[in-house]
Design brief:
With 320 residues, the chain is α/β, with parallel strands linked by helices. The chain has one domain (2-277, 287-319): Rossmann fold. Helices cover 38% and strands 12% of the residues. The chain contains twelve helices and eight strands. It has helices at 2-15, 39-46, 54-66, 70-90, 109-116, 129-139, 155-160, 162-167, 191-199, 221-233, 244-249, 271-276; strands at 95-99, 121-126, 145-149, 175-178, 207-213, 255-256, 262-263, 313-319. Helix 5 links the parallel strand 1 and strand 2 (121-126).
Amino acid sequence: MVSADLDLANDELGRQPEPSADGPGQRAEPPANRDHPSTSRVYDYFLGGENNLPVDRALAAKLSATLPDIGAIMRENRAFLRRAVRFLVDIGVRQFLDLGSGIPTAGNVHEVAQRRGRRARVVYVDLDPTAVARSRRLLAGNPSATIVQADLRDPRAVLGHPEVRRLIDPAEPVAVLLLGVLHDIPDADDPAAIIAGYRDSLAPGSFLALSQGVAGTRPDAGRATNAYNDGYAGGAPRLSLRDRSQTLAFFSGFDLVAPGLVFLEDWRPDRAQSARAPSTRARPTRTRPVSARAGRTPEQPVPEGLVPGHRAALCGIGIR
């Protein structure tokens, strides 16, 4: 099934070149790479999805060996996404631009937003061929949601894309989402300038929601960084963890809404979720398995005194 899905993704992308901001069909991204792990496919694996390959699962096992609760961290990030979208819809936002959206899984932005506000419009942006193909299939027949194959590091190209212009009214507030993405954008690419490129195009009353892997809060971060860099970049620097002041700087030109810049688990947690979650004062030694399905590596013990998935990433929402 997975192989068939990726074959379909390659076929779809080969037959239907993605229009660029400069004109239709000028360049299609290369097909899904079966020899190297993909961040979106590895993320899909940790969320319990089926759109991943042996090379992705092999890297997932290595990452789990150095960061035992990495799956829990990714689920915390996904839970923040859902809470953030609900919050934004409830205060009147009806336009969403999800940058680096990844492979669709349960609780996608359009599902949460359109369930809560029927007029919500959503544009996903990603480069990964599998993510784009799967998103196209999921969004078929939904005129208020679309996927754009583009590099989020080029705000001008993204914002000028015909599909973005079709669904996003620049005169109205927009929520820009950068969730689980910034750790893959090195300082050399100037992520603050990238964010500013989107910010300067936004109408007053627009929002920025982001999450960022944080440095200096967990004892296992160093080994995990090495494994990440080895797996994705052959040992070259790839994972960009940042401290609180660096992350706060991304909100330049925005005013943070309460509770400000906090750990993922602390941003307006659901009451039911909080009731189920272990106390931060507890000392659990194991996480829950990612999935009970055969062939999935069970999550390993976490360091003493660490709640699985906690203190790994900062997040916040700012208003322009």
